[in-house]
Amino acid sequence: MPSMSTLSDLGIPVYWAEGQPSIPREGYILRIGGLVNRPCEMTLPELSRIATDVASCRLTSVTRWSVRLSWRGISARRLAEMTDPQPGVSHVKLTSFGGAYFTTVSLDELSHPRAMIALQAEGEDLPVEYGGPVRAVFPHLWGYKSAKSIIAVDFLDHYEPGYWETRGYEGDAHITATKLHDLNSAQTRYHGGGEVEW
Questions:
Q1: Which strand (E) or helix (H) includes residue 49?
Q2: H-type helices in 65-159, by residue range?
Q3: What CA–CA distance (Å, rounded) separates 137 from 88?
Q4: Alpha-carbon separation of residue 88 from 158, 170, 189 (angstroms)
Q5: Of 65, 137, 167, 182, which cross-links 116 as Cys (Cβ 3.0–4.6 Å)?
Q6: What is the pLDDT of residues 115-137, one digit of tens each?
Q7: Cβ(131)–Cβ(30) under 8 Å?
Q8: Distance (Å, rounded) from C-alpha 104 to C-alpha 162?
């Protein structure tokens, strides 16, 4: 597997819907709130102390590329347990730095065993171009649900269409059967749908 310094050598595209921002690590805070019994705010050092979950899984783009990395962070399921969602919660809204980009996933999607709020990939802190310092990873959904540089996680009792969903992208974002370019092997392969497990 590649080290963080070689991620760009894999040819991983860098997408920012409204241009890549400059994001200082100092003072960065992730807020978890909405319909939860234990809302909280955590700094990067606080997040790093509890970022003990590791998952090897793929990030797969709707533009038809896929890359497998070893991610470290807080499992999305554990994040929900920490904050104790209230009865009636059905969705989770993830908002990126600056507030212009957000996306919403169902509470069921949050319980995927490899869904994660990631701080590292391949043992290195995530740089901004790859969604640092904190990003979502949903290996079973198209990449636009894996919001970059998230500053807020809000538990909701309804669905809110996000940045790409209001522009015609599917709300559930389930990965469909298609050909995908595997950046790890530099080969294009057919995928039958669902989480890519190559």
A1: helix 44-50
A2: 76-83, 107-110
A3: 24
A4: 9, 23, 41
A5: 137
A6: 999 999 988 899 899 999 999 99
A7: no
A8: 6
Angstrom distance (rounded) from CA 163 to CA 16: 11
The gap from C-alpha 116 to its chain's centroid, in whole angstroms, comes to: 7
Tens of pLDDT along 91-113? 999 999 999 999 999 999 999 99
- The two beta strands, 65-75 and 178-182, are parallel
What is the rounded distance in angstroms from the CA atom of residue 72 to the CA atom of residue 51? 6
Task: Quote the CA–CA distance of 22 and 30 in Å, as a whole number.
Answer: 17
Verdict on whether the full-model pTM lies above 0.90: yes
Quick check: 180 and 65 in contact, CB under 8 A?
Answer: yes
Extract the tokens encoding 35: 């319909």
Question: What are the E-state strand segments in 131-177?
Answer: 135-137, 150-156
Supply the DSSP symbol for 177.
S
CA–CA dist 98, 27 (Å, integer)? 14
